[in-house]
Amino acid sequence: MNIDARITRRQVDAAGLVLDDEAISPVAHVADPVGRGPTLEALLDYLDPILDGDLPPDAYVWGPAGAGKSAVVTALFAHLQPRPSRLGAVVHTATRARPDREPPQSFVYVDARAATTDFGLYHAVLDGIVDESVPTQGVRTDTLLTQLRDALAPSSRRAVVAVDHVGEAETYALSALAERLDGLGDSLALLAIGRDRPAALEDPPAKRIEMPAYDTETLADVVSSRVMSGLDAHALTYQRCRTIATWANGNAHDALAALFAAATRASERRRSRIDDEDIAHACEGIPRPCVPLAQVLMLPPNRQRVLRALLDVGADDCSSVEDTAAAIAADVDLSAGTVKRYLYEFADDGIVERVRMDGSTTGRPPSRVEPRFPTQVFRRLYDLEGTA
């Protein structure tokens, strides 16, 4: 993140409440997640074979939204990636095989929300395995697949590939993902991560690791740890951290979104403490269920611009999708027709909801558009990115 932007934000925040926006952001993961010791041990047990030079079986990590699945797996892979096996470090080149040594290992994390095509999937895996830069243009999908097979050839490399957010509306189903990775040989293990219970899936891996929702006390500790990292030491009492955790009902994303929104509100009012009114206002602004902000911030720039402009549409201009699209188009460099198409696609993906003016949620327009993500937090993060 831009250093000048960090300095500027501290100068603007006269109250001195928010010291680091990223530290309290619901889309930022920390190096050492709080309160997930048993799950971390279960994942280490699963990965233990590769630390001895063998490949673990395919596995499925599952749990509800906001349980910390992404946070734990990304943190663990970040710690493991530089580490050689217990048999010693390995120097590997493409031109010189070393049959007397164990092949090197890779721990690759892939976000299925970003890798929604076969090309994107193979590119992400290959890019996580090889040292060379993998081109994104001028190369065919089957060429990437061939290069990936070569990289994973016997005695070349072993890899555990974690694919996150499997089984969502716009991502691979577990069965489709396994089919695409199945032909890559015996040097790759798939660690799929999703929300669905194994019983609801077609042919899930035999190895399964459940990550349940946070209990209230543990989630309060998660919130408190973020407060200590990103806010003034006296900005929020532990009791108010617990209030946020109780409201979030085990969902860390929602809890951190509420913390971020409450801190932003207090800071904008030039106060150095977060009070109950800030928390209540923040919680009221977060829809339940809530679309994760990471999913929204992964959208292409034009679509994010439309969502940002949507937040500024006045009440007089939001009585129908057409009126809303016209109001947004006046602020962005897109036609009203394009904006209208985006809004309908957002509704199909659950990012926004079309609500009929009579209060029901069925049928076609006239209807207004209501965001299903934390708008206060999105506004702040989007605006900060624009100044970074």
UniProtKB/TrEMBL annotation:
SUPFAM superfamilies: P-loop containing nucleoside triphosphate hydrolases (SSF52540). It holds the Pfam family AAA_16. Residues 33-180 form the Orc1-like AAA ATPase domain. This is AAA family ATPase. It comes from Haloarcula saliterrae.
